[in-house]
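name: query_chain
kind: protein
chains: 1
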Amino acid sequence: LFVFFLERDLENGCVDKRTLLCLFLPREKEREREKETRSVAIPSLSLSFFLNTVALCESEKRRRYYMERSVRANFSPLGATASSSSESSLNTSWCRRRSAPRRRGLRRRRLAFLAMNSGGRHDNDGENDDDDAGRRRRMTIATHVYEELSEAEQKGLLKRPRVDFTSIANVVDPIVEKVRDEGDAAVLEFTEKFDKVRPTPLVEKIERFPPPTLDPTAREAFDVAFENIKKFHEAQAKNGEVDVTTMAGVRCRRVARPIGSVGLYVPGGTAVLPSTALMLAVPAMIAKCPIVVLATPPLKDGTICPEVLYCAKKSGVTHILKAGGAQAVAAMGYGTETCPKVDKIFGPGNQFVTAAKMNLQNSDAMCAIDMPAGPSEVLVVADKDANPSHVAADLLSQAEHGPDSQVVLVVTPDVNVENIVEEVRVQANKLPRAEITEKALSHSYCVIVKDMDEVVKFSNAYAPEHLIVNVEDPESLLPSLDNAGSIFMGRYTPESVGDYASGTNHVLPTYGFSRMYSGVSLDSFIKHMTVQELTKEGIETLGPHVAKMAEVEGLDAHRLAVTLRLGLDE
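structure:
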């Protein structure tokens, strides 16, 4: 068939020898001959069959050439060309399995190039193949072989997408200052500017809102999530109190008190997140915080998302601030005419919300924040038996959060990366938020390490917000996993369950901060005080030691406070 169609096309003048050479020569030669072949007319249907036949009939030498070039392009350190020494050490079967997408990409590009030169069009289910191929190439993640990277490149993999906090602060700081000085008027001004709505009133007590109307299945889903979150966070209260007698007559305790006033930020920009209202309000309710202000951007008609309102009413929120962004954070941090001042602000948000929280923490507002945060992220560990469609879906579930999100896949050499990457492409192109996902995937990647010990080592160094362990025996890895906001174990635990309804909290440290911060918990809404009480026996036993330590440190008043009680000084 190859010979038949080749001879027919040559006889009909559809293709000449120069075009044939372009199909097989390296791209450098292809570029040199591009101008010479521009006038060649090639019917797209005949060409499509011809190129598919060529792909099946290439010689072993030429096939290996493409395989090696594919490995250099797709699996070299951070996209760089691999050295000849590293090429020679590549396992051929490993190369063959991973080079197929690259070969298909080469065929599509040649097809588009030749069809363009002939003025023709190759149909593919009614879509332009060149445009479709371009989009499919974008919906993918880069792949790196960890051992082939330099030390600097290995460290580079641990870095998140860069955020220009200086330029963001230049926008946010004036907003925060104006809200501090002008109160409600400034909040309304910025809300009207950014959200195109002027809510009236700006702040309302929760009881003033009528019960929202929800779809029955949605109501049931939120009720289930509420119960699970409540159950998990109530269990955390059991370890709060401490009462110990450290020595005879010396009693030490730790007692808990709720934070008096807390602010909960629930995003409402590209995605409304009623689940965040549950994650923040439920532990605040269990902690018995007296004042709970929930801030969320209003809808275009000035109302609040019904699902957010339902979760807020169910979870004990006391006030609703109908504003979002830096202006809402500033209103809660400093307080306004109608918005109570809060002592601590919780919740995720975009870069401007995060910058406003950081501003308040370092200002005279006397307002704490839950944790420093950056864009959402996930690291997925998969073994050779992990379902590629499940792995791809887990990656994309974080990529669709925002254009600055990052997703990372860590595997060993026996995993078929090609199948996972292809599944990412297929699923990503079907997502409603495909444009956002595409941007997130552009700075995401897969890294291949030599064994599971290296997988754990890389994960701990990256310190992800979400860590999915999709392996046969995840429990064996858990003792070695030290840095992660939340971990999802096994084949049947997608990150989505933690985001919504398993019971754990989805407000987690990102940007590598899980090395030193925990996610939101009941303790986040509680402050602990230590209490000590000594009897006469206690001061007589412990006092001389305290007096001596104070003398060593040169703090005589400290010494006297003890010795006077012991009757040693007059």
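note: The chain is about 50% helix and 15% strand.
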